Task: structure prediction
Amino acid sequence: MSPRSRQTTMVGPTQGGDGLGLGRGGGWYRRRLERDFGMRKVPFPGRRPARRGRAATTNDRTLAGRLAATVALAACLGLAGCTGGGSGGPTATTTAERLGTKPLVARSQAQFQADLDALRGRVVVVNFWASWCVPCREEMPALEQASQAYAEAGRPVTVIGVDASDVRSEAAGFLEEVGVTYPTVYDQQGLRGGVAASWSVTALPQTWFVARDGSRAGRIAGRLTADDLRAKVDELLAGS
Result:
């Protein structure tokens, strides 16, 4: 059987420093991929999913969405009167600015928990993803649409993306392509001791739900559907 006739499989983030067997510790795996699949620099050539519609059609809409998310988040944090955890931690305002207007800000476990603590009183959807993960790419428009819909309805819901075990530049390019406006942070260690690992994430995508009291209220492993997302968020809103 020729290398190209073999079926391409997903590569997990434990197979190399960058999640694709291309970084430190992944040399042997890269050589195996090159041998079996004919890979060189681009993982899974020709495997990008077809676009199913952009969540935003113009750069202006993307910028406006990010600005709206920032204003809403700043207002929420200002009412709560919260600051980031620890000495020298971010204030409520800077937390909102960093998460709302500057995508892929690096976050440690402690920093990310401080961000969530500042969002007490809101239902938070935490979506763990990576640009190399096909199901992650397919579900992201549904997350963006839900984020926009709840914001427009004035409901206390915040969606946060956590880009785990990924190549940062690739992730940034995909966020721009889809037009994501909700806050997205960068988790370099990911499943190998990062934020994702602290949330018991062993495979991507995975979506956690945080209740308004700050407690973890369940998760959905695998690709998320718009119906599942809305059902769980509405359940948490009704129970608060």
